[in-house]
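Chapter summary example.
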Amino acid sequence: MAPSCLAALVTATSLLLLLLVAWKRWRRGRAGRHVIIVVLGDVGRSPRMQYHALSLVKSGFSVTLLGFCNSRPYDELLQNNRIQIVSLTELRKLAVGPHIFQYGVKVVFQSVHLLWKLMCREPAAYIFLQNPPGLPAIAVCWFVGYLCGSKLIIDWHNYGYSIMGLVHGPRHGLVLLAKWYEKLCGRLSHLNLCVTNSMRKDLAQNWGIKAVTVYDKPASFFKETPLDLQHRLFMKLGCTYSAFKARSEPLDPDVERSAFTERDARSGVVTHLRGRPALLVSSTSWTEDEDFSILLAALEKFEQLILDGESLPSLVCVITGKGPLKEYYTGLIGQKCFQHIQVCTPWLEAEDYPLLLGSADLGVCLHKSSSGLDLPMKVVDMFGCCLPVCAVNFQCLHELVKHEENGLVFEDSEELVAQLQMLFSAFPDPAGKLSQFRQNLRESEQLRWDESWKQTVLPLLMDT
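The structure predicted for these 464 residues follows.
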């Protein structure tokens, strides 16, 4: 391209940008009650940002939510006419060139694409950004905020560089670059939120960033599932997954049976089956920070206990979620020859997931934070459903799971199987430890997301 043509292109682009900025500044008076939320990831798998959107709307704001639309968000979000979801284009991995070139192309594409999408939106008083991923979103959102007078709020769920480090190693050049970028650009925000007190302290001490802890809390729809809804869910899932189907057909044609429940069509009464299996649930993103070989090893040991004559129930183990390592682990699961344990890995509709948690007997969490500073939201949701949890231990887990109070903490498969043996002995004993943990959760009067948000986040927006 000739130098004169290049200069003309740069001049025209600059003038266009200046005109767009002037136009947006002229309209800024309309921005006071509008918020843009940016998720450089799948909106449907970003519950905390969906909760932010719903809370903002309830507080009088209109919301534009930008992100990848790979999974269906909550119906409440889709049905709200004050929330607009704008789809971002996801650049899939290139098949040519070295890895660093592919990554560079992806970052440049995302930067330009996100900049364009943000500049085309209605001016906003605030830009809420989920981090991670923050590269390149932090810099782009700050730049747009600078041009248009929006205040940048970063919600720190974890550190992006620490997640990259699980794949490439902590000393890899890309990981070190990402850490430098995150540290530098993270200081550009007007306000920072984070998910634990441990992260708040780390941000202050090592990053020079002052943040406010906003703990994840369950939404109101995470609650214990009534028995009739449990039966309906089991019958629905039984159409696709054999683990939910009845082991034997009822003799009475007016009785409808699942693996766990049966319903008398004449009276409409639903009851638990005698001798039913225990329902164990784990949810995952199938990433490197969750080692499911721990659970599989524990299940093998649990099976052996049954074969050795221990008085333990059969298990149905449901592992929900999508992610890069799902195929690897489903391959391992397929190699197991369980007689008393069934494992299925469904992807549930958004409205079915809370119902499943509210129907389960025990939750298992294998999340090990890449930074050691974030907490698994899946456990928050389980607690909202009064579902006791066994969780693998890491640095700040004590901020959520209280050992021997609302669940148990384990280090390895040996500890996990010992906990399963203790919790499921004489199942379903209403006087057992499992029932005691559930009762403790019922009596804890947990704060829900909306109440917590009004107490912690809304006052911050009024002050900035």
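To summarize the output: Residues 3-26 form the longest helix (24 residues).
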